[in-house]
Amino acid sequence: MAKSKIKSKIRKREIKKKQISQSLLVEVAWEVCNQVGGIYTVIRSKVPSMVNIWGEKYCLVGPYVHNSVAIEFEPIENHNDPFCIATTKLREQGVEAYYGRWLVTGRPKVVLLNPYSIMDRLGEIKYDLWENHGIETPDGDFLLNDIVAFGFMVKLFFAALSNPEVTEKQIIGHFHEWMAGTPIPAIRKENINVTTVFTTHATMLGRFLAMNDPLYYDYIAFYDWAKEAKHFNIEAKVKIERAAAHGSHVFTTVSEVTANECLHLLGRNPDVILPNGLNIERFAVLHEVQNLHQSYKEQIHEFVMGHFFQSYPFDLDNTLYFFTSGRYEYKNKGFDITLEALARLNWKMKEADINTTVVMFFITKQPFHSINPEALESRAMMKKIRDTCEAIEKQVGDKLFYAAAVNPENKLPSLNDFVDDYWKLRLRRTLQAWKSSKLPLVVTHNLINENDEIISFIRNANLVNNYEDKVKLVYHPDFISNTNPLFGIDYDEFVRGCHLGVFPSYYEPWGYTPLECIARGVPTLTSDLSGFGDYVLKNIEDAERNGVQVINRRFRDYDESANQLADLMFKFVTSSRGDRILQRNRVQRSAETFDWENLSTFYDRAYSLALERHYGKEEVKNNSK
């Protein structure tokens, strides 16, 4: 099938309007109103598209586990609404349940359940899970306790919702990840009238194996899942995931890469692939993409000047900003191969004597004591220098204007004469106090583990921000926000100010970070072992021209992949400014491919299949006429 025909073929699978009118859709996820991981982005960004398709027949269910939920949640009452009625019935059973709107784009209906309200029944719930489904859950895992209790409450909600007195519509329950999967076996065993769809975004076992076995992809078909789950002490989680995968009417995952993993580690091949998307309209500023890049790049310039220029300067007009970000998984996220490629890029740029500097940012989350005082002090000194320069600028401007008006010779006077000795001395003293002979910091914070893998590689490779290095490194072990004292901008703005995102993951079921790059008009590098990279290779024509380059990690060894990554970065460094501007414009246009308005049709297919399998093909067909 030609790639250009993909969208039209997907459209033919769309769920029929009559089918929607006869059904209710409930999505269950631990990340609803609870920002703890990437699935939060999936759910939240997809909401506007789902509301557009399903309207008032769509609802989400999540946990009420922290006080900050109130920021995103608005309680409402509607006693004619089946979701509200079911929530009320839960309260009558002594369950703490809330019904309202999630205050995100689309304002979907949402039911929030507090697992702590039924902890007195935890022993009974765990016994049923073990007795009926063979899943034993240890007592000391508090997160697992919360998830098991939440799952029991979700089952009660579906039991109430499916009561004919509440609604006679067909009900689709869509469960995301093992953390929401515990109700599925009970729903099937108790014959609750709900058709179930389960999506695993990444298998628990796959993530652990990939981190610890360099030959993971070669051996994936030969692992003993039970033995490996016990080895990594994740038996309960893996068993929950397997029970949800096998118990659901329709089993799905997010990419072909993960589908192969599911087949071997979970023992079931997914029925439908559900690629992840974004609400591209939220990022759509095509006519301003270059202006926004320039504006936020200036703010990154300020950080770079404060961080590096204390030790030595370089030409900011010939500086490129690269970055990588995500959960700290040194191998899985490709931090290891990125560092290796950067070391090789540094050598290539020196050999070619290129008058360009690359500043590479590693943005991740690691435990730290505090921001390094030297980094904060340098930032504060930069502000003093700026304040002093602005005072001098005002003084010179006022005096120059007067001198120009009265000067009969029409010549530019000596500007130095317009600066008072006080400001000259103050600027000189400030600069003297700021300048240092030390090398610029590699890491911006005082890490608890001062010898983590990133730091160890940097030291061993001597990539420590030497003056002669063409590649400079900034390791920022905390996520960026506008309250950050070092940057003072949001992550979204930081990304727009950069030139290239680098994400050559070894294990990445999908990969939102490169997708977020192209949505913001920033070219990106990824790998064919990520779900996103694999999807691009199979479905996007001329991806490299449109700013997405995919390195080959599946069929190349580490050294070959590192060389390829270094070569692609070198090619980017040596491209002209005009070419980079054209590529930024093209890359944001290509992002429309990943808009939920297009990708939600995969969900339509999954829901149609689930209705047919549970209610019978003829009944669904009759309801859809």
Provide the descriptors you would attach to this structure in a database record.
625 residues; alpha/beta; Rossmann fold; nine-stranded mixed beta sheet; six-stranded parallel beta sheet; elongated
Give the topology.
Blueprint lengths: L5 H6 L5 H5 L1 E6 L9 H17 L3 E6 L5 H4 E3 L6 H11 L4 E6 L6 E5 L8 H12 L8 H20 L8 E7 L6 H7 L5 E6 L3 H9 L3 H4 L5 H7 L3 H13 L2 E4 L2 H10 L6 E2 L15 H20 L10 E7 L9 H18 L4 E7 L4 E4 L1 H34 L14 H14 L10 E3 L5 H8 L10 E6 L14 H7 L2 E4 L8 H8 L4 E4 L3 H9 L8 E4 L6 H16 L3 H14 L5 H20 L1 H7 L2
Parallel strand pairs: 1-2, 1-6, 2-5, 6-7, 7-8, 8-9, 10-11, 10-15, 11-14, 15-16, 16-17
Antiparallel strand pairs: 3-4, 4-5, 12-13
Could you characterize the architecture of this molecule?
- This protein has 625 residues and is α/β, with parallel strands linked by helices.
- Helix content is 48%, strand content 13%.
- The protein has 25 helices and 17 strands.
- The relative contact order is 0.11.
- Mean pLDDT is 91; it is low at 1-13.
